[in-house]
């Protein structure tokens, strides 16, 4: 017979992996739309600008909704929040596929399709914004402090894996039909929600029926680290935005060649980030100080490589360094945040952090693309000084909060 301790350990492990699988699914849902929506939108007669607004509207909604989910998670529970978010994800993605299918069949006009998809993207973002904070709060509550950085690293790695798989899924599944990826990915999200219903139990959550006091985040010691989250995500999305410009301009390539070379560069960055977060951070149980210092140093070296190395191999080297740096920096920043608030504030912190990351993701492409217009090397110089400034802020905070880190 299986004793209660063995069963409890097995249940904890199963819950952990199911929730990480949800994060992979969320990453797929966030990224596959970039591959699937543009060609379908053009096919049904939507202008490129209108297609872009569909993605932008979802991103803006995510920023606002993530901020609001913290109180909801406290009231209804972490597991219920994940179930609601994943169910909303599955339903809205499937309905989006159906609407686009009807548009391709000429049963809906381009104008009608635009408004239907716009509404569905809003609802999708409202639901999905609660998944990451819920999972982060659950896993932190079920992990001791010594292993917290490893847990945060696994969260980042799972989402990154999903972001890589999303475009790949869209490309492979589109051979079954233009809207096939929507239905299959919706089925994947629905299965994830069902598994959470059946197998994930949260015995450590205490529901808050009374509205907790408001938090003035600007007066909290965690605020500088929330700013660091924004800057870290801003740097990643910004680099992704300008890398195609850099490769095309530096090597005088056509569009097809640029797309091919860009794919390898993006894959290099993602693989190194996942490698660090899934293997190195858990294996060596690195602390906040080591993680942030390592991340900043590698990030600065990456910017120097972008500036000084003119070859394509140099760009791959720089992207690998940058990915590894982010792999250290992300879990370091988020782990530091979780150490600076009380247990009953973790869900609101996770929601605030998700919102700040969403803000960084929205601002990164705009800011770095604008800097690129000033000069090919300006974005990299800007990021280098931003990373050094981040390190200076961390050193200052560490001196004030010595007992925490």
From TrEMBL:
The chain crosses the membrane at residues 17-37, 49-70, 82-101, 113-140, 152-174, 180-200, 221-242, 262-281, 288-309, 315-341, 353-372, 378-397. The keyword Transmembrane helix applies. Residues 15-400 form the Major facilitator superfamily (MFS) profile domain. Keywords: Membrane, Transmembrane, Transmembrane helix. Pfam families: MFS_1 (PF07690). InterPro entries: MFS, MFS_dom, MFS_trans_sf. The keyword Transmembrane helix applies. This is MFS transporter. It comes from Marinomonas maritima. The lineage of its organism: Bacteria, Pseudomonadati, Pseudomonadota, Gammaproteobacteria, Oceanospirillales.
């Amino acid at each position: 017979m299986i004793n209660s301790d063995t069963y409890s350990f097995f249940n904890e492990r199963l819950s952990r992996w199911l929730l990480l699988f949800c994060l992979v699914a969320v990453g797929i849902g966030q990224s596959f739309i970039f591959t699937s929506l543009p060609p379908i939108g053009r096919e049904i007669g939507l202008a490129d600008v209108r297609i872009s607004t569909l993605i932008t509207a979802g991103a803006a909604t995510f920023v606002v909704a993530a901020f609001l989910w913290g109180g909801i998670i406290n009231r209804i529970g972490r597991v219920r929040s994940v179930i609601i978010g994943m169910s909303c994800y599955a339903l809205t993605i499937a309905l989006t596929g159906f609407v686009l299918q009807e548009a391709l069949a000429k049963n809906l006009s381009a104008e009608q399709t635009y408004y239907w998809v716009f509404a569905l993207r809003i609802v999708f973002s409202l639901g999905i914004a609660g998944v990451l904070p819920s999972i982060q709060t659950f896993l932190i509550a079920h992990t001791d402090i010594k292993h917290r950085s490893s847990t945060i690293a696994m969260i980042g790695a799972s989402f990154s894996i999903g972001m890589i798989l999303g475009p790949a899924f869209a490309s492979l599944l589109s051979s079954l039909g233009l809207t096939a990826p929507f239905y299959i990915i919706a089925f994947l999200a629905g299965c994830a929600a069902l598994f959470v219903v059946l197998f994930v139990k949260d015995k450590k959550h205490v529901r808050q029926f009374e509205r907790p006091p408001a938090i003035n985040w600007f007066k909290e010691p965690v605020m500088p680290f929330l700013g660091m989250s924004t800057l870290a995500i801003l740097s990643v999305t910004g680099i992704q935005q300008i890398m195609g410009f850099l490769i095309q301009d530096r090597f005088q390539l056509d569009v097809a060649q640029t797309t091919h070379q860009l794919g390898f560069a993006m894959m290099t960055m993602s693989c190194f980030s996942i490698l660090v977060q899934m293997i190195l951070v858990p294996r060596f149980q690195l602390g906040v100080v080591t993680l942030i210092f390592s991340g900043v140093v590698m990030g600065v070296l990456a910017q120097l490589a972008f500036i000084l190395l003119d070859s394509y191999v140099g760009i791959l080297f720089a992207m690998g360094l940058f990915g590894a740096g982010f792999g250290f920096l992300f879990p370091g920043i988020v782990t530091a945040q979780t150490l600076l608030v009380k247990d009953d504030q973790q869900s609101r912190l996770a929601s605030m952090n998700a919102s700040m990351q969403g803000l960084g993701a929205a601002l990164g492409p705009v800011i770095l693309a604008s800097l690129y217009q000033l000069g090919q090397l300006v974005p990299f110089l800007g990021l280098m000084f931003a990373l050094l400034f981040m390190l200076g802020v961390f050193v200052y905070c560490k001196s004030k909060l010595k007992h925490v880190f």
